[in-house]
Amino acid sequence: MRIISWNINSIRARLPRLLALVKRHRPDVVCLQETKVANKDFPEAQLSTAGYYSILYGQTSYNGVAILIRGQAKQRNLMTFPKNKISIMAEMKNNLGFSEVLHGFPKDPSSNEARVISARIGGLRLVNAYVINGESRISDKFLLKGRWMEAFGNWLQNLPQTPPLLVVGDFNVAPDDCDVWDPKGLKDRIHCTPEERAWLKKLQGKRLQDILRTKTQERVFTWWPYMRGGFNRDEGLRFDLVLGDKDTLGLVNRIWVDKEERIPIESLEPPSDHAPIVIDINQTKF
Predict the structure, then answer these.
(1) List of domains in the chain
(2) 285, 212, 251, 236: which is closest to 5 by C-alpha?
(3) What CA–CA distance (Å, rounded) separates 282 from 24?
(4) Nearest CA to 23 among 50, 4, 45, 5?
(5) 126 has which bridge partners?
(6) 222-232 burial string, b = 16+ CB within 10 Å, else e?
(7) What is the average per-residue pLDDT within 189-216?
(8) What is the sign, positive or negative, of the torsion defined by CA atoms of 109, 272, 278, 119?
(9) 3-class DSSP state for residue 198?
(10) How confident is the model at residue 122 (pLDDT cuts 50, 70, 90)?
């Protein structure tokens, strides 16, 4: 079972890149953040043609999260629909057996923003999150980020112990100095402050571990700024995370960042400033 988590930074701008990504990797599940569209404007038809059913929690121009689930139906030519859209979606949903879809979470201090979507899928409870940016330490949004992460963490810690819990998304926090290209220069800057790192540790609690760090201690980035040639200079940060409980840890075979997606391709729209994270899971252990 392959899961991809990606801050797409506008699905309208990067739909061709998403279609190329799913064709290249054939993931079973794709978790998207910052889709930046209302549900009615999400490209469900194009993704159903590519073989994916879409679970949406959208918002116009800002935020937005989605979970795409691959069905057993064969890929269809975009111009030919042997069935109507409703029947295609129903077929895919029945093939995949997901349940318990939840938009947001209880006691969300910013409940008017589409930031979290979750479901039981393929033997896992999967939570897809886009954490508040925070802007700066002197911003009201910074304090809101702290309250939001505390409420989100409380909800995660109190979810049922079964099935195994996997939490993915853009957390807008670099957990440690090894996740920052210039720890001294960015010390106390947004995403790297002691407060944010403490909020993240509290969110994880005793239940959730940073799965990538259980596999490697090497420097790994998932985001690079567009300016100053940040990607080419590898001046990045890691704040796209994959967290899991002890049961999930035993299921993950491999976790890695697809840096190729961050490379500009002449025939496609510019890439997102984030690269996708790919998680390979051993389903036979479910």
Answers:
(1) 2-285 (3.60.10.10)
(2) 212
(3) 20
(4) 50
(5) 119, 166
(6) bbbeeeeebbe
(7) 97
(8) positive
(9) helix
(10) confident
Q: Which residue has the tokens 């969300």?
A: 108
* Interval 11-70: pLDDT, tens: 999 999 999 999 999 999 999 999 999 999 999 999 999 999 999 999 999 999 999 999
Assess contact for 230 and 224: CB atoms under 8 A: yes
Q: How many CA atoms lie within 13 A of 192 on its CB side?
A: 16
Mean pLDDT along residues 160-171: 97
Structure tokens at 69: 């689930």
Q: In 106-212, which ranges are E strands?
A: 116-121, 124-130, 165-170, 209-210
Distance CA(4)–CA(272), nearest Å, equals 15
Average pLDDT score over the chain = 91
Reading the block at residue 12, the tokens are 């309208």
Q: For 75, phi and psi rounded to 5 degrees?
A: -60, 145
Q: Is the pLDDT of residue 75 over 70?
A: no
- Report the SS3 class of residue 269: coil
Query: Could you give phi then psi for residue 136, rounded to 5 degrees?
Result: -160, 165
**CA atoms of 283 and 204, how far apart (whole Å):** 24
Alpha-carbon span 58 to 66, nearest angstrom: 7
- The residue count for the chain: 286
